[in-house]
């Protein structure tokens, strides 16, 4: 906390600059999001309105009400573009100042960790992690087809001790759903689209600033320093908490997640479900001590975490409603604890190597 306070004092001029931009950006961004929400709800309900009020729609289109409606529609889109253009321009300035604040914070936490604002965690790396589910593709080459898109940018890379780490902010759009057989189910695509845009307004775990993304938050890639032949995936076990024993039956049917791995650690199995290609290798990776450290890390983060072990790397994803490497946009940067939370998130991410004991000789080949 003392280190955070001294950092805040040193960066106070930049924080004041960022706060002015934050207020403007927040206003235009929220306004633009309301326009999008109105449009999505319109698309969702228009077919039903047209079906049940076909005669009324025909009459409106023939009289002066139709002209008024068209004028209002043009006015709606003009306002929308004004809000979005202003939000984008102010957002660019805001993110630039955010980057100027971030590097000194990284230097204080661990020297040598460098932030690159333009570079990003690539879609190939996200796909390689196997943390984003895939579906049966309707056509095309499954191996060459890109299934996810990262709209986020900026990552920090370097070493924690002798262990290489890359961590960045990701905003993932999962396109595999729209290229799957699910899109042929009537209204399912419309429901999925509406769900992704409406959910953030009613959930504390999702931000309206990231509507339309299937995942946004922190993505970390760490050298595991151990030879891995197959892959092992560790996911939050929300189903287990709700359905108990019968959850195991349901989970075993998730064929796209390989084999269900049953582990003999009560605390771990309450929090996570594990899939993998090799039962023996999964148990070798997830030793009792390692599972206890993962449970402790989850409690420390106070958020659901996803991990995978593939190609001699540990991948980890943790959802952050306001994004990672991002100052909280819903709090005053000067008078609230926004900066302290910003530093804490970064410190927790850097501490993953130590928390999971990944820098000890036992993990080296």
Explain what you see.
This protein has 365 residues and is of the alpha+beta class. The protein has one domain. Helices cover 49% and strands 16% of the residues. It is built from 13 helices and ten strands. Strands 1, 2, 3, 4, 5, 6, 7, 8, 9 and 10 form a ten-stranded antiparallel beta sheet that branches. A hairpin with a 2-residue loop joins strand 9 and strand 10 (313-319). The protein is globular.
Please specify the SSE layout and strand pairing.
Blueprint: H1 2-10, H2 12-52, H3 54-62, H4 64-109, E1 114-116, H5 123-129, E2 148-150, E3 155-160, E4 163-174, H6 188-198, E5 215-223, E6 231-236, H7 238-243, H8 246-252, E7 259-261, H9 266-271, E8 272-276, H10 279-285, H11 288-301, E9 305-310, E10 313-319, H12 338-350, H13 352-355
Antiparallel strand pairs: 1-3, 2-4, 3-4, 4-5, 5-10, 6-8, 6-9, 7-8, 9-10
Helix pairs in contact: 2-4, 2-6
Pfam families: DUF3137
Keywords: Membrane, Transmembrane, Transmembrane helix
Transmembrane segments: 32-52, 64-85, 181-198
């Amino acid at each position: 906390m003392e280190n955070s306070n001294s950092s805040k004092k040193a960066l106070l001029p930049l924080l004041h600059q960022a706060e002015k931009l934050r207020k403007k950006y927040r206003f235009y961004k929220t306004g633009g999001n309301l326009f999008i929400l109105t449009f999505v709800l319109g698309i969702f309900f228009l077919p039903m309105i047209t079906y049940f009020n076909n005669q009324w729609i025909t009459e409106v289109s023939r009289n002066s009400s139709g002209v008024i409606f068209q004028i209002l529609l043009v006015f709606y889109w003009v306002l929308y573009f004004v809000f979005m253009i202003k939000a984008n321009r102010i957002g660019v300035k805001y993110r630039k100042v955010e980057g100027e604040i971030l590097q000194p914070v990284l230097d204080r936490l661990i020297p040598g960790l460098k932030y690159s604002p333009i570079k990003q965690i690539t879609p190939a790396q996200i796909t390689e992690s196997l943390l984003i589910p895939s579906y049966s593709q309707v056509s095309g080459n499954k191996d060459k087809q890109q299934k996810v898109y990262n709209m986020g940018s900026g990552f920090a890379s370097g070493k924690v001790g002798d262990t290489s780490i890359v961590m960045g902010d990701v905003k993932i759009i999962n396109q595999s759903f729209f290229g799957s057989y699910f899109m042929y189910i009537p209204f399912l695509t419309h429901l999925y689209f509406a769900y992704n845009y409406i959910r953030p307004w009613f959930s504390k775990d999702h931000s309206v600033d990231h509507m339309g993304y299937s995942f946004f938050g922190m993505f970390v890639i760490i050298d595991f320093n151990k030879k891995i032949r197959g892959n092992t995936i560790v996911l939050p076990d929300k189903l287990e908490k709700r359905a108990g024993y019968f959850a195991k039956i349901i989970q075993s049917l998730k064929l796209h997640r390989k084999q269900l791995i049953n582990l003999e650690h009560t605390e771990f199995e309450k929090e996570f479900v594990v899939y993998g290609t090799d039962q023996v290798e999964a148990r070798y990776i997830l030793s009792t001590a390692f599972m206890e450290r993962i449970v402790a890390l989850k409690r420390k983060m106070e958020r659901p975490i996803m991990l995978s072990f593939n190609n001699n790397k540990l991948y980890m994803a943790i959802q952050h409603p306001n994004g990672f490497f991002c100052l909280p946009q819903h709090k005053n940067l000067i008078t609230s604890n926004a900066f302290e939370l910003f530093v804490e998130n970064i410190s927790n991410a850097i501490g993953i190597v130590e928390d999971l004991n990944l820098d000890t000789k036992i993990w080296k080949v």
